[in-house]
Amino acid sequence: MAGLMRNGGFREPQTTASRAKGGLLVLGGFVVLLFIIELFNTLTLGSLTRTFGLRPRSADGLLDIFTFPLLHANQNHLLSNSLPLIIFGFLVFLSGFRVFLTALAFSWLGSGITVWLIGDGGITIGSSGLVFGLFAFLLVRGFFNRSWKQILLAVVLFMGYGSILLGMLPIVSGFVSWQAHLGGAAGGVLAALILRPRSGPERQRDRAIPR
Description:
Elements: E1 4-7, E2 10-13, H1 16-43, H2 47-52, H3 61-64, H4 75-93, H5 97-118, H6 128-145, H7 148-161, H8 178-194, H9 200-208
Antiparallel strand pairs: 1-2
């Protein structure tokens, strides 16, 4: 079928227009979900934060790794994350849903694990770790892929948003989790490394493996 690729039973839109539409739907739906969760959390006086916020170095906190990016301190906190999340997520999605899902998953896990290991204590919430992960992915993937177009995009993004990288340093305000930012960015870089094009010997070795 035109515009679709079949790969092991999974079909993914191949045209830029199809991916752009899919990206807007997925990112828009995700942000709407975040606002619904924030509304419920506000109406219940922060009950979700107390239950599902990430608590460093606690046994229960391991499960919170999967929930803390869905929660925010207030509407302004969510609004500050929403626009960059949509922009960076959309740009990653243009490379395909599998690429987006991989970058998002590594950013999510990298952010959560880092906070759990070296967080300052208290409860950490917010999707800014995902923002940093997707941004870092966009910054480095061009160098791994040896794509001048992606490198050019990285330069433009860095000129526009590069200052946010300061948020990975311990010098930021105490209410900002630099650990979440650092871990998310590390996850994004790792995702770009894993998704890089394989070399000739690696492709030949894969072909030699019986299917």
